[in-house]
Specification:
It is a single chain. The chain has four domains: 113 residues, Methane Monooxygenase Hydroxylase, Chain G, domain 1; 172 residues, 3-Layer(aba) Sandwich (Rossmann fold); 92 residues, no CATH class; 182 residues, no CATH class. It is an alpha/beta fold and 624 residues long. Strands 1-7-6-5-8-9-4-10 form an eight-stranded mixed sheet, sandwiched between helices. Strands 14-13-22-20-18-17-16-15 form an eight-stranded mixed sheet. The longest helix is centred in the N-terminal third of the chain and has 57 residues. Strand 6 and strand 7 form a beta hairpin. Helix content is 42%, strand content 19%. Helix 1 runs antiparallel to helix 2, helix 9 packs across helix 10 and helix 12 runs parallel beside helix 15.
Length: 624
């Protein structure tokens, strides 16, 4: 009878397989880097092609300029063609290498299973002691890589492994967000509660926080003896890491009942309702779906909300990990989708052949499929609203990770929703506006007033004394002319055409939401649903210096407020030592008004905004 290989022989064979895997991994990384470089080269060429194609449409081109542009266009086509061929060739090579790597990993896993059977157990939970439990090679490799890191990266840095993440096999790096350490502290600083729900707007990275949480636990002064986790991709299965052996086994979720009775165990589930009949510390990572977390809420679990991404944070992450995504495209996507990394960074990286319009298709579909009743329901309870509502409404957390309030994903979303609702259910929109509050009401009101003001008409205004901030004299009727069109501006100096309703391209533009130049006046508008507004003369000076109004044109700033806020609305001085503005100050010329923003007579016209305007999207405009 032939004797099989002993445990030492199997270990030696495992070591040889691992060495081959490492060699193939290096080749895969090299091929992957080459694919990314070729893709980036193609993207640059595609962007340049669009620019030259646009330039070639100019009617004032000289023959010499046209010839140069044609040559440049042809060069870009050649570069793009070569880049696409390189991507195809290198992608095939990468695919072959990954298949070879997969075969080697299967071989390693088979050998480890054989070794476990000979040893009789793995982490105390081998096949002889727990039915259906087996060694998990990928999970073990990831945990060992996390444990072997010399130092944890800080906020704004990259956590990078030499293996891929278990549930994101195409990635080996993650961006450590600014608040990750504080959220970890919130999960560990108190012995009770021992059950936590970590949620937030879908797409902001709850599943990525899982890896950071594992790293922090492994690098802590007293790592937990066991970490058990479950994932939505494998219902009914669970992984168990034993710190003593540094190995992970995979089995049925009931296989680890004894481990979960240990209060020192950490139990993490991603998108899966956890077992609650245990003593372990539970962390549920989930989208705001009531069906997933309702049982934990009954057990008095603490709910923590992840913050949305800020633009500068997304751009920092882009420069470190998503270099193939054009920065201008990332900004455009942010101004539409809001602070959701999945749509601002991940989608354009995975679909480099798509431009802005194609990447916005999902958002447009979400707007098109949402009516005022669904919006009202989602505002009332975001956890029970339809999936698409999370594209339109975002959860804002405060500094303690508690729910602050809901906001529209972006002003663009509010604009588009208002256009659709005004066309399909005008009264429903007006009713929704009157029943909402806070940021949602503010965005919705701004969207409606951006439809009203360009059409002109008569508006009731209260003049404001520039020194006392009190209403001055009787109310007046202000007549605004009809604008010829709406345009977005990036630089105020370029927004110089009269009777055009200008809106800032950036949603973070300070001081005003829109303005219109006239022959004798320049009207600035700021929409608000609050009871008061602070005004800083230094910002007014900066605004007027940038606009560069001709002599004889009077600037007027109108604070546009709802009818119910109008009677008691107040202005407050920001930077009181700088107010009132000095005689030579540009702000001294500004006339101030509180405007009653009435919108009950809205109608719809099916004329679209000019091409290229970020507010355009859907072919509708609203009119009085």
């Amino acid at each position: 009878m032939t004797k099989g290989p002993d445990s030492a022989d199997i270990k030696s064979e495992i070591d040889n397989v691992i060495k081959k895997i490492n060699d193939v991994e290096e080749q895969v990384r090299t091929a992957d880097d080459a694919v990314k470089l070729a893709t980036k080269r193609g993207l640059r060429s595609r962007t340049q092609l669009r620019k030259t194609a646009k330039e070639l449409q100019r009617p004032d081109l000289s023959e010499q300029e046209r010839a140069a542009l044609v040559a440049q266009h042809q060069s870009c086509v050649a570069t793009l063609t070569a880049a696409e061929k390189d991507v195809e060739r290198l992608s095939r090579k990468e695919e072959r290498l990954r298949k070879k790597e997969e075969q080697l990993r299967k071989k390693e896993e088979q050998l480890r299973e054989e070794k476990l059977q000979q040893d009789g157990a793995a982490a105390g939970l081998g096949k002889e002691s727990a039915t259906g439990v087996g060694y998990s090679l990928k999970a073990t490799r990831m945990m060992k890589a996390l444990h072997s890191m010399q130092a944890l990266p800080g906020p704004g840095e990259v956590l990078k492994l030499d293996v891929s993440f278990l549930f994101h096999p195409m990635y080996d790096s993650l961006f450590v967000r600014e608040w990750y350490p504080q959220l970890f502290d919130a999960l560990v600083c108190y012995p009770k509660p021992s059950k936590y729900i970590v949620t937030g707007t879908p797409g902001i990275g709850k599943s990525w926080f899982f890896y950071y949480l594992l790293a922090r636990l492994l690098k802590s002064a007293a790592p937990p003896p066991f970490i058990v986790w479950e994932h939505m991709t494998k219902p009914g299965k669970a992984w168990c890491y034993t710190h003593e052996t540094r190995e992970v086994v995979l089995g049925e979720r009931t296989s680890f009942d004894d481990v979960l009775l240990n209060p020192a165990t950490w139990y993490i589930t991603d998108g899966v309702p956890p077992q609650l009949d245990c003593l372990a510390r539970i962390v549920l990572l989930t989208s705001p779906k009531r069906e997933t977390f309702k049982e934990m809420r009954k057990e008095a679990a603490e709910v923590l909300y992840m913050p949305l991404w800020k633009l500068d944070e997304l751009l920092a992450c882009r420069s470190l990990l998503y270099g193939t995504v054009d920065e201008a495209l990332a900004k455009d996507l942010y101004w539409h989708y809001g602070g959701v990394a999945r749509f601002v960074l991940q989608s354009p990286e995975e679909k480099p052949y798509k431009g802005l319009d194609e990447l916005l298709e999902e958002l447009r579909e979400a707007v098109a499929g949402c009516n005022t009743a669904q919006m009202r329901s989602s505002i009332g309870s975001i956890s029970t609203g339809p999936e698409a509502s999370h594209r339109l409404l975002h959860i804002v957390a405060d500094e303690t990770f508690r729910l602050g309030h809901l906001v529209f994903a972006s002003q663009w979303v509010a604009d588009e929703f208002a256009k659709k609702a005004m066309s399909d259910e005008r009264q429903g929109l007006i009713s929704l506006l009157s029943s909402t509050s806070g940021s949602v009401r503010g965005s919705l009101y701004e969207a409606i007033m951006h439809a009203v003001l360009p059409k002109g008409g008569s508006f009731t205004v209260a003049p404001i004394d520039g020194e006392t901030w009190e209403r001055q004299g009787m109310e007046e009727v202000l007549v605004l002319g009809r604008c010829t069109r709406t345009e977005a501006f990036k630089d105020l100096q370029t927004a110089a055409t009269e009777h055009v309703y200008y809106r800032p391209l950036s949603p973070t533009f300070e001081t005003v939401d829109a303005f219109e130049r006239g022959e004798k006046t320049c009207d600035f508008f700021q929409m608000t649903v609050g009871s008061s507004k602070e005004l800083d003369p230094r910002k007014l000076d900066s605004l007027l210096n940038d606009v560069q109004l001709p002599v004889g044109v009077t600037p007027r700033l109108h604070f546009v407020v709802p009818e119910d806020s109008y009677p008691n609305f107040k202005l407050k001085a920001g930077g009181k030592k700088n107010w009132p503005p000095k005689l030579q100050s540009p702000a001294f010329r500004m006339k101030l008004h509180i405007m009653k923003g009435v919108y009950a007579r809205l109608q719809v016209c099916t004329r679209s905004l000019h091409a290229g305007c970020p507010m355009a999207g859907g072919g509708r405009r609203l009119w009085l």
